[in-house]
Amino acid sequence: MKDIERNPDEESVYECFNCGTIVTATAAGSCPDCGADMRNRQTPIE
């Protein structure tokens, strides 16, 4: 499996671990809806 090449200046799609909210941003801290952690959707969950 290949890791993604990430450019911190480009926007990525992030998904909330808790409620599933999807956000496009350059960096995501916490979910704007529920405050839970976000993950980059291009990064596989293993």
Automatic annotation (TrEMBL):
SUPFAM superfamilies assigned to the protein according to its UniProt record, in alphabetical order: Rubredoxin-like (SSF57802)
Gene3D superfamilies (UniProt xref): RNA polymerase ii, chain L (2.20.28.30)
Which Pfam families does this UniProt record tie to the protein? DUF7129
InterPro entries named among the record's database cross-references: DUF7129
Residues forming the DUF7129 domain are 9-42
Q: Could you identify this protein by its name?
A: DUF7129 domain-containing protein
